[in-house]
Design brief:
- There is one protein chain.
- The protein has one domain.
- Strands 1-4 form a two-stranded antiparallel sheet. A two-stranded antiparallel ribbon has the order 2-3.
- The protein is built from 14 helices and four strands.
- It is an all-alpha fold.
Amino acid sequence: MHPETLPIIGMALVFLGAGLFSANEGFIYLVALIMIWSIFALGYDIAFGLSGLLSFGHAAFFGLGAYAAAWAMLDGGWPFSLALLAAAGAGALTALLFGIIGRRVSGLYFSLMTLMLAELIAIVMTTRLRKLSGGVDGLPGVPRPVFGEIDFFSTHAFYWSIYATFVATLIFCGIFKHSPFGQALQGLRQNPVRAEQIGFDIGGLRLAALTVSGGFSGLAGAYLASLMMYVGPQMLNWKISGDVVIMTLLGGSGTLLGPVIGVTLVELLREGLSASTQYWYGILGVIFIFCTIFLPQGLVGLGARLWKRP
């Protein structure tokens, strides 16, 4: 058994147990939220952890995926499965456009470019396209799926649809990371000059990685819109991009387990701190700063060091 399969099995069993043995609707909703953000973070880590692309614009892929799914179901009458494909396609296409525009820049300039484009999309969606997007009010009534005789309107029932997609995402990312394409991306991140010298198309690889990452981001956005039964401009806000960066770094980028652990930690802190103080986001920021300084490889890196210690 490859070591990378252990996180897949472990996280799948943890969330399986949460769904099987909990009857608390609030707890089920929280775990469903963690899985949706984990799909987003795992997708983000394809661009960041594997390829080294620090994007501050993933809120655009996430939010447009949510809007695409809402439009498909509310206006087009599409079934949920096709709406998911529309969301993934919207996220992937937007990421592809971002990659094409930013093909000649890298590092901090790429990060700022993605942030600028994402903010431009957020402004356009709430102003020029407000009749389509609902403006600042958003679009309420986003439906949950119905498959045959199974109605997923109940959060506990919808949980299993999210769970299946979460496990599929874990499996895909595990295979993707160790595929020749994934290995090429990791080589590109570690030494782009040498990768180019041996014949890799650096621009093409980064563009492909960003596109795949955008697809998963759009998919996660669609699930969140359906879980909340609402999509609004908040899902395009730059804070969404900041949150997924924090989650990925806290857990440990470039690993399967890291993004999921980071998401779980942030969501639990958000749930606990927000009930105690209105300044919870600042406290979360302080925790992130300390972890960045003292745990540069995230919690997974810390766990690996402790495991190896005699």
